[in-house]
Amino acid sequence: MTKSEESYKACVSRLMQADSLRMGCLEAVRALELPEGYIGAGFLRNAIWDYLHNKPSPTPLNDIDVIYFSKTTPKQEDKALQARLSNAMPNVNWQVKNQAHMHTKHNHEPYSSCEHAISYWVERETCVAVRLTDNDQIDVLAPFGLNASFAKTISLSPLFKRPEVMHKRVEEKGWLALWPKLQLVT
Question: What average pLDDT does range 26-45 have in this prediction?
């Protein structure tokens, strides 16, 4: 791991620990003891972008994307896990997806792990996830590293081959208005 990657991970840890909502979410997911249980996408991406824009308070999250990886857990278990999280934190819009099943939705070969699965998400900056370990450390999952996340860019994941989807997401989600220092890299 490079020195910059280590410093990015340390920054992520500080960002998570300073945000009571995010820490509560991480604790709730840890309590489920999911195999490879992480919270991904905007949960971390937005926190980094808020930090880079010196926002005094976090940008509200539309949902909390919980991912895990279990080949033996039936697909319908996601709803039961979502309900358990909703009971623990009812003011959060939880979305739970077992990444062992998600390849069928996206017409890929089966994924081998959460890291493999999120490497197919649209933007490189969205291909990130975090979890709270048993010893209260923040574990970061970033198949392409965190450099792009801290570079104030929005760029296509190397494994996602449809730039028009990224452009549509950027426009629909209003990312360039919410975080005006970001640059779209195509």
Answer: 98
